[in-house]
Design brief:
The strands form 3 sheets. The chain has an 8-stranded mixed β-sheet with strand order 7-8-9-6-10-11-12-15. A 5-stranded antiparallel β-sheet has the order 4-3-2-1-5. A two-stranded antiparallel ribbon has the order 13-14. The longest helix has 45 residues. The N and C termini lie far apart (127 Å). Strand 11 and strand 12 form a beta hairpin. With 1421 residues, the chain is mainly α. It is built from 51 helices and 15 strands.
């Protein structure tokens, strides 16, 4: 026999030390046998108890008789299990007598045994004895334990009856705790009874099956529920608490203990959080069956004391990974001595194998506690997920569940049908009819508050700002978490066992040696995930103790290098690099390696267990978004390492991470199959490419770039091409950035056509990324890669438009419109110089406008314009194609706003010029002609100034018809005649023979002479005519006679004409005065407008106030830490030194400062946009002292390209101080009526204050105030005809908010800030977006996008400060475009301008015939 066994029995259990070290535990020796046990009183018991069990009146009348009978019952409860009837009667008598403590109830059937009068008079006197005697029911018998625990020799009926007795006692104990008025002695006896019952069932290490397993669970459930009630009514003594702790430590090898401990502890935690943080803290959901587990009137002090003691009841959960500590109990030693030879190896390994599962469940319970303190408790935890926690292995069930041949064949419960096969774990509701007064229908089949659902929640809500600090949570749970996170990573320290002098027996050592530490990886993964959640709950300005950070980093590093736990770390550490943690860069290499294993292929190369792989990829993508800026921002920083490590000696973060992160991004985009995850991945790819391109000094494409390839990659071999190409690139090469741009372009184009064309979100994100990559290709615009990308996008448009009619939808057309916008970003002059590329562009333009291509399939003859039917895919697609066509014709306009001409009628009037002639040409262009030179020209020449207004903008031409080039002498009165180079030789006079006279003929007489005709007509004026003829004949004769004497003279041209009809000349030269040339029945090409009509100038101003590019206003705010009021946030922009330098740098990068008065483009408000005033002498603008100088009154920050223009405005608060005439625009929540009441907008620029009121019918049709009558007003000038709805514009509200404390994004007053963002354009409440930016201590900028993503800028991205302004601009443009695509009434600017031109033509045209039109050109306007 091993002597060490006795040493272990006599050794002191260290679990008793600590808060109860000054107290001794109470013995659980049972009620004893008394006198009858010494002399043998079986027959006495049978005789006495049988009579007492009847419902007849009790014959016991004195206290001595009751005392004697209690001694008989005491011995009867200790009889062998074979004496079941005697045991049953004893239990019935005890339960009936103890019911005297309960309130009166309805009589039960069958009637219970009668209560003796002495006991009914003083029930408390005997209750303590009866409770002590009931111990004997659970005390193991000599040479016999509870039959249904170890043996199955007894019949199934007897086993069931024995279980019923135990459940009856437990039900009585629960009723006494609920309803009886117990004193301290009774509470102490009741708790000791339950402890003794649990110890008899749970302490031995023998495996439990079927009924015994359910009984053990029920004993623990009643024990903890009664204990909580005792804490409320009579708080247990320290000795009782120590006894509970010591017994629970001995029961830790039982899985139900962990479940019940977590259940009760979590209920106490929920009540504790309500007392500590109040009702604003996120409530931890508790099941209905556990809602009353903690009494509602339990005091806060009792809850706090009970919670802390209950939390530490089972000791350190990590001890479950040490079998030698778990087996350090007398019950284990006794079991080995008595059962070792009979059970064999299977019995010895059963409890050891179950420790890994119990450890996993215990760590899930700890994780649930931590999540409750973090405010993340959004679900219950359930025993159903016992094997479903993070990292749970598949072998847990096999280790716990016994073989089929060892399960009980019959249930002891009558609540379950007999023909139902026995399950591994009988639901607790099946026993509830025996053990509780509650109906089984309301009792769950599993313990409440599921750990698995608590920890493995899918959607993580934002953490509450009221949560405790990281240090506080580590003070409570850090010791357990850190130790559990390192389980299996260090060799077992055997010195501790030798020091204790209690080595395990050979049998246990053999089992321990065979136990693989990998079985504990599920619990370790839970601990690592919990550590990550705790550390990622750090608030902005919170400081974490250095020892906690160091231990966390050490645990995470080892967890990331273990494939069994790396997934759990990545899942819960998505924000670890966004929190300004000191020293967190030491984890960068290991996280990059883990991301490579997760994202590079469709299936992660890690052991995920029950972790949702989609959630794992989502967390990995979030981590990737936080790492893409590191190679650029920390490019010169050496890779930090733990002390004593030398893995990355001399390697910088830029060198290590640049190539690997690029490869991860490309591989992830290539392998991603989920459309929802592809959107943030595209953002990560763009930011990675953008940072690498900014890092490279030379953007020339790499020599390995596939510039010589002829087309897209085939679908067969495309899965590995892009990742392989990136692996071949050298990250240290200066060409790496430009080569990566090419690879990313090919990859996104390929996946857009092959995989993503059916999803709107991904298609829009991919096209936005391609638009961003177009700017990176601009270093060599003539490169073949740019042309190939354009052809790919053209192919995408062709494929989408060529889909069958049933596949066409609003989303499909939105994708096509976005593709046309993407093509506009790729246009450049060298690209359009390529004939093939230009042909491809014009083909898709033709496809968008007409709905088909002229050039069909190869071999088919081309279709002429007259042969095609004008049937575009949709009107939105046609408008987008027209926009692209105009950009092609303009060769991509300038970015400085020069497209918009400042010259208009007001400028000309200010310079003293007269009126203009206005014409509408072809129904879509307004020509305003001024027949005066702009300058004081001394050369009277035909000069005209033409102001052209069309759908694409306002342009001005100055034309002059000259007879000589401008290089001629300016002072000459006439143009000099050309001088011949040589004198021409004299010519001989021609010799002419006279023709013979013609003979007379009949024809001569056919025509009468003039004299005869006049005489025949008898015309009185004939005489005068004859005189004139005679005079003319005399003059001609005189001239002929004097020809030989006349000397020839040089011809002198006449003086220049000073009066012209230049408008007529201009229109004639351009073919608009083709008299009689217009088609019959068609509308006239030229239509004159009434220049004198009232309201025409206002209509032209309204047209000018509608820009030709998509206009957007972005409002920028600065929120200091803790500010939640809009007035305080707006006031920061006007205070000196109230904003950070990083915010000022970002603001300067957003756009160029411009003066509102002299600005010809969008200025942030319709009142001041596109309305540049004539220049005046002004001092230069002073250097802005505060950001509020860009509030839109004097200056704004302006940015534009060929399709968009943005005005960045920093509100200063003046917006709310304006008059009612400048109030907010009316808002609408639907695609319905919505108009602006802002004076000076393009809705109403006439200047008359009552113009809108003078149109009651139209105002009523377009107003939300349907029942308010319009005030009377004098007759107005006629308004523009046509529908106002078709010209309506909608704009989203986009806010950029700089946060000093990132946590403040949860409490931003967006609805109040929007009041400061008036632009004069109608908007809808649900179309407001906020881009929150916060600066990290390391210099990077963290972005929060409330809408979940904004194109290339995903939520949670970390950006380098240099790239932040460009990324914010792209995000704002993307959000605005998405809002326009989602608006049915939106039309592009050129369409709105075209409609306004048509309205003006219809309202102010002159009804002139063609002669009257020509005649009007000869008259002054």
């Amino acid at each position: 026999m091993n002597v060490g066994i006795f040493n272990r029995v006599n050794s002191k259990i260290k679990e008793g030390d600590g808060m109860y070290s000054e107290w001794n535990s109470l013995p659980l020796e049972g009620g004893g046998h008394g006198v009858l046990g010494a002399v043998g009183g079986r027959d006495v018991v049978l005789a006495v108890v049988q009579q007492l069990a009847s419902h007849q009146p009790s014959p016991l009348t004195t206290d001595s008789e009751v005392e004697w009978v209690l001694e008989v019952i005491r011995y009867g409860l200790s009889l062998p299990l074979t004496e079941h009837e005697a045991l049953r009667d004893c239990v019935r008598v005890c339960c009936s007598w103890l019911s005297a403590l309960l309130p009166p109830a309805a009589p039960a059937q069958p009637p219970p045994p009668a209560v003796p009068p002495p006991l009914a008079a003083e029930p408390h006197r005997y209750a303590n004895k009866i409770l002590n005697h009931l111990h004997n029911l659970f005390v193991p018998r000599p040479n016999e334990t509870l039959a249904f625990i170890y043996q199955t020799e007894l019949g199934g009926n007897l086993i069931s009856k024995q279980a019923v007795l135990c459940h009856r006692v437990l039900r009585l104990a629960r009723s006494l705790a609920d309803s009886a008025s117990l004193g301290p002695r009774e509470w102490r006896s009741l708790l000791l009874l339950l402890l003794a019952a649990a110890a008899a069932l749970l302490a031995p290490p023998a495996p439990l099956y079927g009924a015994a397993e359910q009984l053990c669970e029920r004993v623990l459930c009643v024990l903890f529920e009664v204990w909580i009630l005792a804490c409320h009514r009579c708080f247990p003594s320290p000795a009782l608490w120590r006894t509970l702790r010591e017994q629970c430590v001995r029961w830790r090898h039982r899985a139900p203990l962990t479940e019940q401990w977590a259940r009760v502890s979590l209920c106490l935690t929920a009540r504790l959080l309500a007392h500590m943080y109040g009702p604003l803290y996120p409530a931890m959901p508790i099941g209905e069956e556990d809602a009353n587990l903690v009494p509602a009137d339990m005091s806060a002090e009792a809850v706090t004391q009970s919670w802390y003691r209950m939390l530490h009841t089972i000791g350190n959960p990590v001890d479950l990974t040490k079998p030698h500590l778990i087996s350090h109990t007398p019950e284990f030693l006794q079991y080995w001595m008595t059962e070792e030879g009979r059970e064999g190896r299977e019995g010895r390994e059963a409890w050891v194998g179950s420790l890994a599962h119990i450890f996993h469940r215990a760590m899930l319970g700890v994780a649930a506690h931590v999540d409750a303190f973090l405010g993340r408790s959004t679900a219950r935890w359930s025993v159903q997920g016992a094997g479903g926690g993070a990292g749970a292995g598949a072998g847990d069930e096999g280790e716990v569940t016994p073989p089929a041949h060892r399960r009980l064949a019959k249930s002891f419960s009558a609540a379950r049908p007999r023909d139902k096969p026995l399950e591994k774990s009988t639901p607790r509701s099946s026993l509830i009819g025996l053990t509780s007064s509650r109906p089984s229908s309301v009792v769950p089949s599993t313990p409440p508050n599921s750990i698995t659902s608590q920890v493995g929640e899918i959607e993580k809500p934002p953490l509450t700002p009221l949560r405790p600090k990281v240090n506080s949570i580590f003070h409570l749970f850090g010791e357990w978490l850190f130790e559990a996170a390192l389980v299996g990573t260090t060799p077992v320290n055997s010195n501790q066992q030798k020091a204790e002098g209690t080595p395990p027996p050979p049998s246990l050592s053999e089992a321990t040696q065979k136990l693989n530490m990998l079985s504990y990886q599920a619990g370790r993964a839970v601990a690592l995930g919990t550590l990550c959640r705790v550390i990622c709950s750090k608030q902005c300005r919170e400081e974490v103790l250095a020892p906690y950070l160091a231990r966390t980093y050490a645990a995470l590093q080892r967890g990331l290098r273990d494939p069994a736990t790396a997934a759990a770390v990545v899942l819960d550490a998505a924000d670890i690099f966004r929190l300004d943690l000191d020293g967190v860069l030491v984890l960068v290499p290991d996280f990059i390696t883990a991301l490579d294993r997760i994202l590079s292929e469709r299936e992660p190369k890690l052991e995920c267990g029950s972790i949702d792989k989609r959630e794992l990829r989502k967390a990995a993508i979030s981590l990737l978004l936080s790492l893409v800026a590191f190679p650029y921002h920390y490019r010169g920083l050496a890779v930090p390492e733990f002390p004593g490590c030398n893995e990355y000696a001399g390697v910088t973060i830029g060198e290590y991470a640049r190539g690997r992160l690029s490869q991860v991004c490309v591989s992830a985009v290539q392998a991603e199959s989920s459309e929802a995850l592809a959107v943030p991945l595209l953002s990560a790819l763009y930011l990675c490419v953008r940072h690498n391109a900014a890092h490279a000094h030379d953007h020339a494409p790499d020599a390995k770039a596939r510039s010589d390839s002829s087309g897209p990659v085939s679908a067969d071999g495309s899965q590995d091409d892009f990742a392989a190409d990136v692996r071949e690139l050298d990250p240290s090469s200066p060409y790496f950035g430009s080569a990566l741009v090419v690879r990313a372009t090919y990859l996104v184009c390929h996946r857009l056509i092959s995989s993503w064309k059916g999803d709107l979100q991904v298609s829009l994100a991919a096209l936005e990324l391609l638009s961003g990559l177009a700017k990176l290709h601009s270093s060599k615009p003539e490169a073949a890669e740019r042309k190939r990308a354009v052809r790919w996008i053209c192919d995408y448009i062709g494929v989408q438009c060529g889909r069958p009619p049933q596949a066409h939808s609003r989303d499909l057309h939105s994708c096509v419109v976005a593709a046309y916008t993407c093509l506009a970003a790729w246009l450049c002059a060298p690209l359009l110089a390529d004939a093939d590329c230009l042909a491809a562009l014009l083909e898709v333009v033709e496809l968008g406008i007409s709905g088909s291509k002229s050039q069909g399939k190869p071999g088919e003859p081309p279709k002429m314009k007259d042969e095609k039917e004008l049937k575009p895919v949709s009107m939105r697609v046609r408008d987008a194609a027209e926009s692209l066509l105009m950009l092609i014709l303009e060769q991509v306009g300038n970015n400085d706003g020069g497209k918009w001409c400042r010259l208009d009628e007001r400028w000309l009037a200010a310079l003293g010029h007269g009126k203009l002639r206005h014409f509408v040409v072809d129904g879509n262009t307004i020509l305003s002609l001024l027949e005066e030179p702009l300058a004081n020209s001394q050369e009277p020449q035909p000069t005209i100034v033409a102001i052209i207004r069309c759908g694409w903008g306002r342009f001005a031409w100055s034309l002059s018809s000259r007879g000589a080039p401008r290089c001629a002498t300016r002072g000459a009165a006439a143009c000099a005649r050309p001088v011949p180079m040589l004198e021409p030789p004299p010519r001989a006079p021609p010799a002419c023979r006279a023709l013979p006279a013609a003979p007379p003929c009949a024809v001569d007489a056919a025509f009468p002479t003039l004299d005869a005709v006049l005489r025949q007509l008898n015309d009185p004026e004939a005489t005068t005519l004859f005189k004139l003829l005679e005079q003319q004949a005399a003059i001609e004769k005189k001239v002929r006679e004097s020809e030989d004497n006349v000397v020839p003279e040089e011809c002198v041209p006449p003086d220049p004409v000073t009066e012209f009809q230049t408008a007529r000349l201009f229109l004639s030269h351009f073919g608009y005065l083709n008299i009689g040339g217009d088609k019959k029945g068609g509308p006239a090409r030229l239509c004159a407008l009434d220049s004198r009509a009232e309201g025409l100038s206002a209509a032209l101003r309204r047209l000018d106030a509608t820009g030709s590019r998509a206009a957007l206003t972005v409002h920028v705010f600065y929120a200091r830490a803790g500010q939640t009021r809009a007035t305080d946030i707006v006031a920061n922009a006007s205070q000196h030194g109230a904003v950070s330098p990083a915010f000022v740098r970002m603001l300067r990068g957003l756009g160029t400062p411009v003066r509102v008065r002299g600005h010809a483009g969008w200025s942030g408000h319709v009142r001041s946009s596109y309305d540049a005033q004539p220049p005046r002498d002004e001092p230069p603008p002073p250097e802005p002292l505060t950001p509020s100088v860009y509030d839109g009154r004097e200056q704004v920050l302006y940015w534009s390209d060929s399709t968009d223009e943005i005005a960045f405005v920093v509100p200063s608060g003046y917006e709310l101080n304006e008059t009612d005439d400048q109030s907010d625009s009316m808002k609408s929540d639907v695609d319905g009526s919505c108009c602006s009441v802002n004076r000076g907008s393009w809705w109403d620029v006439s200047g008359e204050r009552d113009d809108r009121r003078e149109r009651p019918d139209k105002t009523r049709a377009l107003s939300l105030e349907l029942e308010r009558p319009a005030p009377a007003a004098p007759a107005p000038p006629p308004p523009l005809s046509g529908s106002g709805r078709r010209n309506r514009d909608f704009t989203p509200k986009i806010l950029i908010i700089w946060l000093e404390d990132f946590e403040d994004h949860l409490n931003l007053p967006i609805d109040e800030l929007v009041r400061y963002c008036e632009t004069g354009v109608p908007w809808r409440r649900h179309e407001s977006s906020a881009l929150c930016v916060s600066s990290a201590r390391g210099g990077l900028a963290r972005v929060r996008v409330r809408a979940g993503g904004a194109g290339v800028l995903a939520d949670g991205a970390l950006l380098a400060p240099r790239l932040l302004p460009a990324a914010l601009r792209r995000a704002a443009c993307f959000l605005a475009r998405r809002a326009r695509l989602n608006t049915d009434l939106y039309q592009p600017p050129h369409v709105r301008r075209r409609h306004l031109i048509q309205d003006i033509a219809q309202q102010y045209k002159k009804d002139l015939t063609e002669p009257e039109l020509l005649e009007s050109l000869f008259k002054a306007p």
